Amino acid sequence: MIDIVKPTLLLDEGKVRRNIDRMVSKAEKAGVQLRPHFKTHQSQEIGRWFRERGINQITVSSLDMASYFAADGWDDILVDFPVNLRQMDTINALAAQITLGLLVESVETAVALNNQLTHPVQVWLKIDVGYGRTGIPYNDAETLGKLARAIAAAPKLELIGILTHSGHTYSAASPHKIVTLYHESVVRLNTARYRLQDEGHHVLVSIGDTPGCSLTGSFGQVDEIRPGNFVFYDLMQHQLGACAADDIAVAVACPIVAKHEMDQRVIIYGGAVHLSKDMVMLDGQVCYGLIALPDGDGWGVLRYDAMLVSLSQEHGLLRVHPILFDQLQVGDVLMVLPVHSCLTADLYGRYHTLTGQEISKMRTNS
Amino acid sequence: MIDIVKPTLLLDEGKVRRNIDRMVSKAEKAGVQLRPHFKTHQSQEIGRWFRERGINQITVSSLDMASYFAADGWDDILVDFPVNLRQMDTINALAAQITLGLLVESVETAVALNNQLTHPVQVWLKIDVGYGRTGIPYNDAETLGKLARAIAAAPKLELIGILTHSGHTYSAASPHKIVTLYHESVVRLNTARYRLQDEGHHVLVSIGDTPGCSLTGSFGQVDEIRPGNFVFYDLMQHQLGACAADDIAVAVACPIVAKHEMDQRVIIYGGAVHLSKDMVMLDGQVCYGLIALPDGDGWGVLRYDAMLVSLSQEHGLLRVHPILFDQLQVGDVLMVLPVHSCLTADLYGRYHTLTGQEISKMRTNS
């Protein structure tokens, strides 16, 4: 194992490549386009592992992320985020260079965008199929029609498709329910598609969420899928049944700094600034992470005899079963499997592979 | 106002200096040493504002942070975190250069530390006065005595004091309860102090938490206080009654990217990676932040007619009262007052002052 002195973001390259391979094969077999979301890894180098598997279209969640990947040769990028009109300079620079996809969800934005663009862009309509975060309700034919006509009338905007993020699969109670929601989303997207088709607008249909795309046996009537988290997976996905524990491809290595015999508490150097404060409920308790023990160059099986029950800025507090407690010593390293790998990875500037290589990534905030 | 194109961490220098001044004056008046915790701001430049007010001893939460501030001339630094034996190189480099204070809570750590040190350090015992995160229970005279003797026998360790972080004030139900807990902590620390004194160990008593230090009228029988968050404060502190809304000195400026008439939702460019996922309960609802509107070069009063109810990686979803909803437009900027300023600031590499200056800070993870 590489020498750990403080909280370190580890990446198991073999698992990452296996996760990529599985989703690429599944999409190929189903004949749907895979446009993976790169917000989870945010790394040019990991992006190249997708390119090696034939991927040439990607999704990102910010214009800065689009610029970062465009600089590495990606020339078809969808920014899966409502257009931020305050970044027109970045939009124009990207539109001059690549095939840029943008999300539009109001006539005002479509008009303002068209007026300020110096190069054409592809436009996607964000559809709300029930998640309620953002987008046009799938059954609001009037708004959809109005917006499609406004885009058709805007010479710099090409209406290419409609998309959704079925984020409500994350609160589904079972894998069966996730798949049901996935197919409900597909049906609703197609409701919107045919409404637009009736008015002469032919659009692609794109869907994207890791639980649905991982668990569904068939993708249904969609042209494109945009999952992202599957590259690493995490405890939340595992809890949803979307991955095996062994598919989780990142962990934060954390030194043990204190032990308290009385109530089997173990304190690790690893807090909110190393893991993020996202949590899952486990047996009615708030859980900020589970652990594995170091094993060879990586980590072993997911342990249920310890749970990260509290996070301060730099500390993590584990409740540990007495048998495991006796095995752990101050100075040992524990591997924390993150609740939400996107947010954990976002906290770091690089990954460390199990073979000792460093993989750089972008940072969200300068 | 400075030009905002994407989520930007703003700092009101006037408020920061006022917050510093208030705590410095309070400590001076009470005759206690103020050793402010610098984990909240993590900035050499802001550290100098404390130095201008006569502060010459500081607290940090990691050895990296100690190195960062030592590089700016701070020569008396307490690392308020259990010793991480895996960073002995950093410990020895710091101990050679400055007066370094370390936390020890077990005989094993004291022995290992002494064996590996090349220069002497000051040692503080972390006392648990009821928070239950880490530390030796204040009334465990046997463990305390054993540890004090082990330290006395270690030539490189000087037992200087006992300290606590009364983090349980954060879950107190009222300002009155916070002050009661503060004084209970002081009494318990002194219980430990006198136990040690009976065995011939004379120690300083140090206490630190922003709610307690902000709200108490008198500090009681302590030698030193170590609050940190008060430099910026935040919604959590405001909710506890530890500060006025107008004392909150940082905000994240976020562009509005979408509006949804139907249920008065406003979507901002500002998510978990810009704000952190810490939350408070407000009227029985999970709240990830409240807003203020831009006002002059800064922001106006705290608004209760909008609430950040959900955060994705890059999105924030606000529920907004209809009257305010009509006033807000896509492209406008909202100021989000953070729930927990320590975690929010940690996500950024710099602050932007209201007069357009950039203030650099360290980053936790490389």
Tell me what the structure shows.
The structure is a homodimer of 366-residue chains. The first copy, chain A, is of the alpha/beta class. Chain A has 12 helices and 22 strands. Chain A has helices at 13-30, 44-52, 63-70, 88-97, 107-116, 141-152, 175-198, 210-215, 235-240, 272-275, 322-327, 341-346, and strands at 8-11, 33-34, 58-60, 76-82, 99-104, 121-128, 136-137, 157-164, 204-207, 224-225, 250-260, 265-269, 280-282, 285-287, 289-292, 294-295, 298-299, 306-311, 315-320, 333-338, 350-353, 358-360. In chain A, the strands form 4 sheets. In chain A, strands 1, 11, 12, 15, 18, 19, 20, 21 and 22 form a 9-stranded mixed beta sheet that branches. In chain A, strands 2, 3, 4, 5, 6, 7, 8, 9 and 10 form a 9-stranded parallel beta sheet that branches. In chain A, helix 7 (175-198) links the parallel strand 8 and strand 9 (204-207). Chain A is elongated, with a radius of gyration of 22 Å.
